[in-house]
Amino acid sequence: MATGDFDNDGDLDVLIVNNGEPPALLRNDGGNRNNWIGLQLIAKESNSAAVGAVINWQAGSARAAG
């Protein structure tokens, strides 16, 4: 079992794999009220996967770095 946002709509979907069976994707299409943001990190030099990238953001007076 693995969870993730397969369809990029801001809610978690579930992927289930059983031995010898095709995988089953259970999409969460019930709607959600979650706020989310997707990021695509692009390297400037040789680090094409952007490993170790640091993201800083600000929304109004709220700030975060990670």
Summarize the structure in words.
- This protein is mostly beta strands and 66 residues long.
- It is built from no helices and five strands.
- The protein has strands spanning 2-4, 13-16, 24-26, 56-59, 62-65.
- A hairpin with a 2-residue loop joins strand 4 (56-59) and strand 5 (62-65).
- The chain starts with a strand and ends with a strand.
- The mean pLDDT is 83.
Helix-strand makeup class: mainly beta
User: Which strand-content bin applies to the residues?
Assistant: 25-35%
DSSP summary: helix tally: 0
Topology order in helix (H) and strand (E) letters: EEEEE
Report the average pLDDT across residues.
83
Q: Report low-confidence residues grouped into runs of 5 or more.
A: none
Rg result: 17 Å
Outline type = flat
The biggest beta sheet, please? 3 strands, antiparallel
Helix content: under 10%
Strand order, main sheet: write it out: 1-2-3
